[in-house]
């Protein structure tokens, strides 16, 4: 049984369909990414899972519990970090964490939690006086205040500088080490590629694909590109015979080879056999972003990259 | 894999209630500007009236100070807290999605409402205590002739103001709108209820209406209790009706998010 199961979730607001038919199966202890462009329905889906929005149809189980019928039990074991949620602004970081700790039966040590999100220096600072990134870190700390078995993190690293972002990622990895199930809503490809065991691609209210990040790249069937300069005369036929190669052409005195699978290895072997010495080799592999674009069709909105 | 059985059931315990109440108290106490009017304005009114006609009496020999000034000061305290301060916090919490954030924890957003009402009540008690103490120490005001009645009508007045405040909390779309709406209601009820001078100087129909509305009714009822006069049922009915109407509106329109 999975830690979080969503079956056939549907939600519409007036004429807008936010979720057309979404099913997710999040395994216990995995980091599960929910990836999609703005307006794809990611937040609606996780808010239905968190029991904040009632689905028009479909069902949700969090650790076997229904977020509506077993509300209080689900709240004890599911930590949620929401986008754009404010907190009691006049309270300090320390006061907020201690306050939220009292909501739970079991919980983390407030001082330790504050240290984990790197805010020990700000524990006496009022929430209102914090920077956007620091507020984000408080928000994540509060999601962990009840030592949850599963957490939903919606746009975890919004507003964080690169260093703080890496710190946050390390913290999420530690959650996985502790056996906590993590649902990570994101549109940051680097974040998803680095953290997620599996990713659900959501587009226009539907799950387009579920796979590991590298599985998604493979699934998109995108070519890898290898470029090099041959030290001597070179016959393209040497490479055209290789299985995984799709095309070979010459541009600006450089040979450009495209293909799939283990392209780098296959081409290198063929070149060695043909006794061709190469210089300036470069290799480009399609990333999750390319796969995302290929699998969801239209180009990304741009601003949210 | 976790099984359902080992997940504890039940809502947040007394510690959660206590800490949320303390949190609300800190929020209110740290909003210094919000404390000036409910705690400061009544004092100012006491002092100004005390200096100008400290020992004046009405035609039938009742102390003006006990009949009108004290009731006015106390009504201002509960009206300001109930109609302006408390709702503006609730609207801010809804607007800034504090309530929504709370809804994903074991604490229900209604706990904030409870904590705010409690903290508001404490503010009222504090304001009333300060007002009465100052009046007794410096302006020769005695205890109410009918203490029990005074406490009861003051309680009813407080309930009325908080109920009216819930209309503001239910309908105001933003914190700014809440403060503005609250102040307009406060001053409108106040003006009709004798806050800026005796209600008798208003046109008769306005004065009669104002006396039935929450502010005027509270001033009259508290004043009557203080000087030992009988309660005019009209004032009590006026406040009771305001509670019912406000309650119905608030129940119908209040949203948590």
UniProtKB/TrEMBL annotation, chain A:
Q: Where in the cell is it found?
A: Cell membrane
Recorded hits in CDD domains, A to Z, give: ABC_DR_subfamily_A
Q: Which GO terms describe its molecular function?
A: ATP binding
Q: Which residues form the ABC transporter domain?
A: 4-229
Keyword Nucleotide-binding appears in the UniProt entry? yes
Q: Name one Pfam family in it.
A: ABC_tran
The record's principal subcellular location, in a coarse class, is: membrane
What the entry lists under SUPFAM superfamilies is as follows: P-loop containing nucleoside triphosphate hydrolases (SSF52540)
- Keyword terms: Antibiotic resistance, ATP-binding, Nucleotide-binding, Transport
Annotated membrane topology is: Peripheral membrane protein
Q: Which SMART domains match?
A: AAA
List, alphabetically, the PANTHER family matched. Answer: ABC TRANSPORTER ATP-BINDING PROTEIN (PTHR42711)
Please identify the protein, giving its name as recorded. ABC transporter ATP-binding protein
From which organism does this entry originate? Myceligenerans salitolerans
TrEMBL record, chain B:
Domain ABC-2 type transporter transmembrane: where? 18-221
Q: Does the keyword Transcription regulation apply?
A: no
Any stretches that span the bilayer, and where are they? 35-56, 68-91, 112-139, 151-171, 178-197, 212-229, 236-254
Signal sequence interval, chain numbering: none
**Keywords of this entry:** Antibiotic resistance, Membrane, Transmembrane, Transmembrane helix
Q: Topology in the membrane?
A: Multi-pass membrane protein
The record, for Pfam families, names: ABC2_membrane
Q: Where in the cell is it found?
A: Membrane
Query: Which domain of life does this protein belong to?
Result: Bacteria
Chief location: membrane
PANTHER family, alphabetized = DOXORUBICIN RESISTANCE ABC TRANSPORTER PERMEASE PROTEIN DRRC-RELATED, TRANSPORT PERMEASE PROTEIN
Q: What is this protein called?
A: ABC transporter permease
